[in-house]
Structure formats: structure tokens, C-alpha cells
User: What shape does this take?
Amino acid sequence: MRLELRRLGLLAAMAASLSLPPAHAGLFEDEEARRAILDLRQRLEVLNNALKAQSDDNAQLRRVLVDLQGQIDQMRADVNKTRGAQEQLVRDVSEVQLRQRDVQSGLDERLRKFEPITVKVDGLEFQVEPAEKRDYDAAMDTFRKGDFVAAQTSLQRFVQRYPQSAYLPSALFWLGNASYANKDYKASLAQFRQMQTLAPSHVRVPEALLAVSNVHVELKDLKAARKTLEDLIKAHPQSEAAQAAKERLAKLR
Assistant: This one.
């Protein structure tokens, strides 16, 4: 800008210097007149060259400005393109994160189906597999409904499928009761005995002994029935089953 102002000032000065001398110039001698004309021509040529240079500079400046504007437009387009790519990247990342959460949630849900579950049965707390709990609960639901035939089948299947289950003493106790209800006395006796052998300190052992005495009565073995009641009273004197055993024992004598 300063260079352009200096050029404009120079042009103005040259233009002023080209003004013809006053009227008394006609008094110059011929030699002086020629020198004056040559000087004016030289000044005019300098002025023309300056104007041409100024015109070339303006054209070059316009080209520079046009090129600069093109670069700015290209930069703006690149920025918009980059911003659009970034926004798309953010959307893609968000979508991937949502899918990852869905996959993780589904995986956690599937894993939970196999994770051990803590249960409490007959005063005992232990862990079992989800399928194990499902099968035991289903068998017990059948027993509670009074369908002892189906309950005996379900509980027998459970005992065979889960021989190491912590449910086993309870499952054998209820299986013995289901077999007794179905008048399958030999099976009932074997199941109660197995339960006592497996878990002699189980909370339901006194009830199991009382049930065993009932099985002996049904099998017409009163001696075995009395012996079982006596063992019950001796081993578990404070239990409710022992009180019931005393009453039954009095009737069997």
C-alpha cells in the first residue's frame, strides 16, 4: 500500500512537471526550445512507463488476489470436508460403542445363565448351577401340586442327573416321600436310607427316620418300625419327630 501511494505521488509530480511553460516561453531560443521539447518527451516517456508499470502491478495484484481467494476457498472446502469426516467418525464411533454395549450385554446375559447361583434349602446355603436349580424347583413344584407320580419321576431323574449336587439330601428326602405316596415302599425305604447315609446331620433326618418307621409298618415289619422309632428318639430327642415317635411307639407296643 505504501509503495502504491509513493507511485501515485510520483505520477502526480510527473504530471505536474509536464505542464507547458508560461507564454513567455516563446522567447526561448531554438536550442533551448529543442532541449525543452526533448525534456518534455523524456518526462512523458517516464510517465507512460510509470503508468504501464502501475497497470502491470495492478493486474499482477489482481491475479495474486484471485489466486489467494482460490486458496481460501479451497481451504474452506478442505475444512468443511474434514469437519464432515470428523462428524461421520464421531457417528461411527458412537454406533460401534452402542453395538459393543449390546454385544457385551448379550454376552453377560448368556454368561449369567451358566454362573453359579447361591440358594438356601433346609437351612443350608450353597451354590448350584442355574440348570440344576431349575430342575430341582420344577420337580418340587410338581410335588407340591400333589402329582406324586410325576414328582417321583422328576426327582428320580434329578438324583441321577446331579449325583454330586448339594440339593441331593433334600431331593432324596422328597423322593422318598413321593415313592411312599405312590406305595412304592421298597424304593421309598432305599431313598430314605440313602439320604441318612449321605447327610446324617441333615435337618430332615429325624423326619426321614419317622417316615422309615411308617414304611416298615406298611411292609408289616413292626419290629423294624419300633427299632427305627427308638433310634430316632435316642439320636434326636429334642426334635418334633421324636415327640411324634414316642406317641407312635406307644401304639406299636
Summary: Strands lie at 117-121, 124-128. The longest strand covers residues 117-121.
